[in-house]
Prior knowledge:
Elements (H helix, E strand, L loop, with lengths): L2 H16 L5 H16 L3 H5 L2 H6 L3 H8 L5 H13 L13 E5 L8 E5 L1 H17 L13 E5 L6 E3 L2 E4 L1 H7 L9 E2 L2 H4 L4 H11 L5 E6 L1 H15 L13 E5 L7 H5 L7 E8 L2 E5 L8 E3 L5 E7 L29 E7 L6 E11 L4 E7 L13 H15 L5 E8 L4 E8 L7 H15 L1 H7 L3 E9 L1 H11 L14 H14 L3
Parallel strand pairs: 1-5, 3-6, 3-7, 7-8, 8-9, 17-18
Antiparallel strand pairs: 1-2, 4-5, 9-10, 10-11, 11-15, 12-13, 13-14, 14-15, 16-17
Amino acid sequence: MAIIGNIIKGVINLRDVITPEANPVEAQEKVLKKLLKTAKNTAFGKYYSFESILENDHPSKAFAENIPYHDYDKMYQNWWKKLLDGEKDITWPGKPNYFALSSGTTGKTSKRIPVTDAMVEAIQQAGIKQVFALSNFDLPADFFEKEIMMLGSSTDLEKNKDHLEGEISGISASKIPDWFRGYYKPGEKIAKIDDWDERVKHIAENAKNWDIGALSGIPSWLELMLAEVIKYHNVKTIHDIWPNLQVYTSGGVAFGPYEKSFNALLEKPITIIDTYLASEGFIAYQERPETHAMKLIVDNGIYFEFVPFNPDYINQDGSIKDSAPCLTLAEVELDQDYVLIISTVSGAWRYLIGDTIAFTDLERAEIVITGRTKFFLNTVGSQLSVNKMDDAVQYLEEQLDVKIPEYTLAAKRFDDDFYHSWYLGSDLEHVDSEKIADLLDNFLADANKNYKVARSKALKGVKVNVVKSSIFHEWSGANKKKGGQVKMERVMNEEKFKEWEDFVKETQPA
């Protein structure tokens, strides 16, 4: 009998009963006031008169009116750079002990985003909230005695002057509570290995020594790790190695495009739980099994604002125009795309994180990620979001009975006009590119009225190229680094797309 598991599950269920649900709007008002009070004597707080904002009868309105939007470059050049030069009390009291390195899905140069002790604590508290939410998923008691495989970036953080640097997953894993270390795999020694291929090799060698009940990580890299473990042990599925695997907490990107290829590695279905952890903080997690939407963490160090996603409010580079209107949580509507703006205990203020979201439940403050501000394909008025592209790829998988875990595209001018040029990552042996293009084109025209209008005007059609999925992983490895928070660009500009096409020509076997 799983005695410890029953105790843990009982504690989780009891906490769920006795802890009252916070009102999201009221919780956000408290978070904003606490952020302003804590940072009012920083250089940023004095420059933007946080004291006056706090004295206003409507702090959220005064906050929005007095502080401009900040993207990373603006925040870094004007403020965070001073922290790296040794100054303190710039955007948050003191100096951060960590900086998260993030190249995200764009660029080779890593961003340096401060991670304060308050943010580390907020991330830990958010993780605990997600653990308690497991009471909603009807998991057996013995699940709570199994080990958890967390595949992130290396926990061997680099020293830079007076702080440590690494990806947020590595920083978080390096600070896991002592009580959790017995459950955490691959363990501290393997997690510190910087080379991703070497780390996966050690995971494969040790896999049979562990009783893994849950997985956590970005789908593309986790899928590759599972495939390597299966290959190393010469078995059919990962359940031959980890028979008690029951849960996967996905994060970083939408799981939908990976669902079919991921499930092919399993003997039996497992519970998929979505999370939204960015370099800037733990933003949301899936609280209940009836939906794939995620609950915004409204009471834990992040204040949220929402700019309606409208091409008139967005600059060509994906940044927000200063004149763009902004809404609080009390003002948002269902099923509308919003650009997410955050202010945090790491000293990010009215910060454009780069994601777009839509609300599926206002009372619960539940959201889905709909795309990236830079990745809405709008070159010829088609206004395609990443979630619509994901839906289209899943439709192809169903219609063609294939796995397509990776894709990228661009609006590209050919001799006769603009086309949406797609590259699909799949192991298809016999490819009918014209049929695939027609399926994509028809699906998107039905799913998106703007796309349908664009197809009658500036957008000539769709072109499709199918390449090996491994080429996408090699591209990520060549341009950034394998594993961790690295994600594939779903949409590229013409310059980046030319680099991609040249890479494919050099990499793909003749």
